[in-house]
Amino acid sequence: MDETENVFGTVFKVDPAPLGLTGFALTTFMLSFVNAGIIGSKGGTGMAISFAFAYGGIAQLIAGQWEMRRGSQFGFVAFSTYGAFWLWYVFLEVAAHFGVITVTNEALGISLILWGVFTLYMFVTAIRLNMGLMFTFLFLWLTFFFLGAGAMSGVVIITHIGGYLGILAAAFAIYTAFAVVTNSNHAGRIPLGPGLGSKKK
């Protein structure tokens, strides 16, 4: 296979980005369905933890290391951080369930907003990459801030809004992954859209 440019603007032979994006998307879909109140938290949270450990956590960490080997600063930081985020979520849920730690609403809310701060600065970079990533990070940034506000305030509707925003973030992530995989075999038929301020290729 000839070398070409991947979704993060780096040269590659096999692109790890779809693995990381799909791991992120499916896990985010599952947890966001719970946060939005679409499925109940009793069974849904347990399933989200399973997704978060195997696909959201481990798979994204692997994708992040591959992105580092490909020379993608953005891909390395994004996948490694969100892989760590999902493992943090697993630890938090399991440790709280067994009474190892105590999680207050205020502490949880601040933690989610801090994840949102990280996502905001990644969004600033994603703006110039392509539209698929730009909207993924935009809605993810909003997701974290609404979930954080919902946790601190205890207002369920705010958490539900965060859940629906998470569904949108996951939808753009899975679309971007689909486009990368499909375009690698069908010569660029699925549009991602140029980043703002970048020259359309």
Automatic annotation (TrEMBL):
Keywords: Membrane, Transmembrane, Transmembrane helix. It holds the Pfam family Gpr1_Fun34_YaaH. InterPro entries: Gpr1/Fun34/SatP-like, SatP. The chain crosses the membrane at residues 21-40, 46-64, 76-101, 107-127, 134-158, 164-182. It is found in: Membrane. GO terms for biological process: succinate transmembrane transport. GO terms for cellular component: plasma membrane. One of its GO terms (molecular function) is acetate:proton symporter activity. It is a multi-pass membrane protein. The keyword RNA-binding does not apply. The keyword Membrane applies. It comes from the Archaea. Belongs to the acetate uptake transporter (AceTr) (TC 2.A.96) family. This is GPR1/FUN34/yaaH family protein. It comes from Ferroplasma acidarmanus Fer1. The lineage of its organism: Archaea, Methanobacteriati, Thermoplasmatota, Thermoplasmata, Thermoplasmatales.
